[in-house]
Amino acid sequence: MKKLHGARALQVRRRDGEDLVLSTASRAAEEAEVTSATTKLFVAMMQKDDRVRTLATEVLPTVFPWVRFLPKPDVQAFVVELMDVLEAAESLGNPAPVAHVIAMWKNTAGVYADPEVLAVLKKRGDDLGEVAAPDSTTA
């Protein structure tokens, strides 16, 4: 076991699965409330004022340094999608869709960061059809 966040949570390592984080119910509720309030405030500011959207786009590389590899229209698209998904995910109380959007845009930035991969993906070619799933016995 490992203490997390100043002994307010414990990380339990498991041999047969993903590690667990143990916390009190009140602490988890407080964290969910703070996340929800922050998300609602941020989304409301973005919807109310174009300057906030511009500022968010400008500070995005500070939060996500990999956005520097995205073309400017894609950075703006990332901001719009992130805001939409933040609002929707907050209404569900499930942050997983937000993490997914961030991961997908990070992967896109990774493609733009590698000229060889970008050239291959931009190359027009024939569709070679369905690709078989990798065989786990040959790996």
Question: Could you explain the architecture of this structure?
Answer:
The protein is mainly alpha-helical and 139 residues long. Helices cover 61% and strands 8% of the residues. The protein has five helices and three strands. The chain has helices at residues 25-48, 50-63, 72-92, 96-113, 115-122, and strands spanning 2-4, 9-12, 20-23. It has a three-stranded antiparallel β-sheet. Helix 1 packs across helix 2 and helix 3 packs antiparallel against helix 4. The two termini are 33 Å apart. The mean pLDDT is 88.
- End-to-end separation: 33 Å
Q: What's the order of the H and E elements?
A: EEEHHHHH
Strand order of the largest sheet: 1-2-3
Biggest β-sheet description: 3 strands, antiparallel
Supply the helix-strand structural class. mainly alpha
In percent, how much strand structure appears in the residues? 5-15%
Shape category? flat
Percentage of residues in helical conformation: 55-70%
Number of strands: 3
- Helix segment tally: 5
* Mean residue pLDDT: 88
Taking all Cα atoms into account, the compactness measure Rg is 20 Å
Low-pLDDT residue spans: none
Key terms for this structure?
three-stranded antiparallel β-sheet, 139 residues, flat, mainly alpha
Secondary structure: elements and pairs:
Elements: E1 2-4, E2 9-12, E3 20-23, H1 25-48, H2 50-63, H3 72-92, H4 96-113, H5 115-122
Antiparallel strand pairs: 1-2, 2-3
Task: Describe, in short, the structure shown.
This protein has 139 residues and is mostly helical. The protein is built from 5 helices and 3 strands; from the N terminus they run E-E-E-H-H-H-H-H. Strand 2 (9-12) and strand 3 (20-23) form a beta hairpin.
